[in-house]
Amino acid sequence: MGITVDNVSKQFGSFKAVEHVSVEIKSGSLVALLGPSGSGKSTLLRLIAGLEKPDSGRILLTGKDATNASVQDRQVGFVFQHYALFKHLTIRQNIGFGLEIAKWKKPRISDRVNELIDLVQLQGMGDRYPSQLSGGQRQRVALARALAIEPGVLLLDEPFGALDAKVRKDLRSWLRHLHDKVNVTTVFVTHDQEEAMEVSDELVVMNHGKVEQIGSPAEIYDHPATPFVMSFIGPVN
Ligand code: ADP
Ligand code: MG
Fold it and tell me: Which pLDDT tens digit goes with each residue over 62-73?
């Protein structure tokens, strides 16, 4: 599902969190929203998800105006850093949770959960509880849960933020691999330049609620459009 963000602005009180942002996200691509803390990345992601309504501008999904559509109607899956698994439910129950809500029949849920456990490579762990998994494995369960309903868009807000450096690195290449397999349009928030460069097809660099530059990692690295991008992306001296 392609996403068009058309001149969207959002302010909280007098603070302009997102200001006149326009971004075109191609169907099936893996896009990173990159910027320092407070630059409006999460707000933009929440606007795409329908968790916030823009003050002005439009959000289009597959070319159709979805600015006023509900979260459910947008068919988005999301993983937030602090969007924890249910502790008292098994891995299988966690992954199937949204399908229960959507009133899928038991055997169909079971088949879909098996598929997802294979997809995130957690075979044999379905009957465990979240506390019996590592941090990286838990994030893979959260991804499986987000993918359960076959969303048109997958939105990830610093999903690996709380994990240690080694696990983050493993999950990066793993996310790339997963994306190539499922091919769902994925928008991924990070403040980590290296993570964004390594994982994404396209980068949207944000600062103070505005888009500074959009392009492939190579384009942005080789031709930073603004002094901000140059200092934020450039090689560390
Ligand atoms: P980022 O994800 O890039 O760190 P955010 O989109 O979370 O940035 O937030 C940008 C700024 O907008 C924050 O510094 C915060 O002050 C403000 N903000 C975000 N959400 C709200 C809210 N619900 N109410 C008030 N202010 C908010
Ligand atoms: Mg954020």
Answer: 999 999 999 888
Q: What are phi and psi of 36, to 5 degrees?
A: -70, 170
Find all residues with CB under 8 Å of 70, minimum gap 6, and list them: 50
Taking the CA of residue 157 as reference, the ligand 1 atom at the shortest distance is 2
To test the ligand 1 pocket, which listed residue (16, 42, 207) has its Cβ within 8 A of the most ligand atoms?
A: 42
Average pLDDT over residues 131-159: 91
Each residue of 168-198: pLDDT tens digit?
Answer: 888 888 888 889 888 899 999 999 998 999 9
Question: Whose atoms come closest to the Cα of 15: which ligand?
Answer: 1
Segment 126-144 shows an average pLDDT of 93
- What is the crossing angle of helices 135-147 and 91-101, to 10°? 20
The pTM of the full predicted model, rounded to 2 decimals, is 0.92
- Ligand 2 centroid distance, CA of 80 (Å): 9
* For the CA of 161, the nearest ligand: 2
Is the beta carbon of 96 within 6 A of some atom in ligand 1?
no
Residues with CB under 5 A from ligand 2 (ion): 42
Nearest CA to ligand 1 atom 16: 38
CA–CA separation, 153 vs 1, rounded Å?
A: 6
